[in-house]
Amino acid sequence: MPDTALPNSWDARAKAHSFFGFTDLPSIRDRGTVVLTHGEGPYVVDTEGRRYLDANSGLWNMIAGFDHPDLTRAAQDQYARFPGYHALFGRMSDQAVMLSETLTAVSSFDEARVFYTNSGSEANDTMVKMLWFLHAAEGRPRARKIITRGNAYHGVTAVSASMTAKPYNAVFGLPLPGFLHLTCPHYWREGRADETEAQFTARLATELEEMIAREGADTIAGFFAEPVQGAGGVIPPPAGYFDAILPILRANNIPVIADEVITGFGRTGDMWGCESYGFTPDAIISSKALTAGYFPMGAVILGPDLSDRLQHASDAIEEFPHGFTASGHPVGCAIALKAIALVQEGLLDNVRRLTPAFEAGLQRLAQHPHIGEWRGRGLMGALEAVQDKATKTPWDPGLSVSERIANTCTDHGLICRPLGQAIVLCPPFTLTDAQMDEMFTKLGAALDEVFGGLTPSHS
Ligand SMILES: *Cc1c(COP(=O)(O)O)cnc(C)c1O
Predict the structure, then answer these.
(1) Per-chain mean pLDDT for the chain
(2) Fewest CB atoms within 10 Å of the CB: 15, 170, 225, 405?
(3) Is 126 in the pocket of ligand 1 (CB under 6 A)?
(4) What is the pLDDT of residues 374-418, one digit of tens each?
(5) Mean pLDDT of 316-329
(6) What is the predicted pLDDT for the residue at 27?
(7) Ligand 1 centroid vs 161 CA: distance in angstroms?
(8) Ligand 1 centroid from CA 164, angstroms
(9) Ligand 1: distance of its center to the CA of 455 in Å?
(10) Within 13 A of 407's CA, how many CA atoms are on the CB side?
(11) pLDDT at position 1, please?
(12) Is residue 119 lining ligand 1, measured as CB closer than 6 Å?
């Protein structure tokens, strides 16, 4: 199929010398790419001057919108003061020191220590290396396996992709050995016909117990979970889930790591997703909203137990041999300090204020005969498209239903994300009530348009 790009257009230039990750290539061949120049509040603007309400906050991260003056000023001031430094060899910027203090204070831990990375994937990789290092130092060199859940998303580096339980990683020959995946904790899809939600939760707990017994508790390095699965399609756990599985992990001395890359800093209506579900992990993985998306940065926040143990293990060989060139970048840290202040001084309240209208909008669109369920927590939500609501029969994947809905939304000036057969919404925390209405009105129109043109297949 010939590419529709006009010669010398931004579209043609974008395609000529750049690779797009996670992009449906036939779709950009037909429809073209979108090249953006700037943002205005929750909107982004392309090279043609078209405005799009970005109902995905960029990629979950731009929680304060695309032109927050406090964040750009924090960046400019810090660039003028000290535009770059690492956090290695006993040197670290004052901004990094202050951010670690702030992250400790806002974490759910009494005491914590922070290790900086440039992304969420690197933060998960770092956490796995920390676990391998400290288990070996404590005389358990066999404790190397990592447990995650089906549909989990933990990143794309070789280790974090192995933790990501998505079928697309098979093309890379992943997961690496020793990365174990449990059932995705999605009651609507994974629950059996005759199973209550409580029974489903109990079955998942039993599955974990059996996995630990089969593999041997002494071979397991850690358990990682997103409090609400994000890139899996916004999947909150079934009722009682963390209460059921945490005692099993604790009884087997398996460290529990909360991957809060999406859920951290207010997305679920609390500072952390683990607060929303009432548990305290052993460490928190952070990125995305940490800098409100204004700088690439990730952080591993170690709670008191892991922090002491890692310090001990490091003391024994006189260093922790790991770190990135731009770890704890002072500009990123200055932005993060401002972003956290914005969350504390109003953005978190906004999430709480907006959540009822957000849920009502999802609920209303879920009345549609081709929406199987709505789900979400705080300002992250999804609508699951189905061919048949009663039987939960999905559409033929060849119809690319969610991509069609997202493309129709884009045509109408709304960016939202297709994930499997779901449409995901995670707007900035600065959304106004009118912008919330605009989002649901445009999405509703796109659902009518796309479903109206599809003929269900009967088998
Ligand atoms: C996005 C994401 C990551 C990976 O972060 P990158 O910065 O893209 O490497 C890890 N975990 C979760 C839960 C994420 O949503």
Answers:
(1) 96
(2) 170
(3) no
(4) 999 999 999 999 999 999 999 999 999 999 999 999 999 999 999
(5) 96
(6) 86
(7) 10
(8) 10
(9) 36
(10) 15
(11) 58
(12) yes
- What pLDDT is attached to residue 456? 67
Probe target for ligand 1 pocket from 61, 154, 268, with the most ligand atoms within 8 Å of CB: 154
Q: Is the CB of 232 under 6 A from ligand 1?
A: no
Q: Is the CB of 286 under 6 A from ligand 1?
A: no
Is the beta carbon of 154 within 6 A of some atom in ligand 1?
A: yes
Look at residue 108 in the predicted model and tell me its pLDDT: 82
Q: Does 182 sit in the ligand 1 pocket, CB within 6 Å? A: no
pLDDT at 190: 97
pLDDT band at 457 (very low <50, low <70, confident <90, very high): low
Q: What is the pLDDT of residue 459?
A: 46
Ligand 1 pocket, residue 120 CB under 6 Å: yes
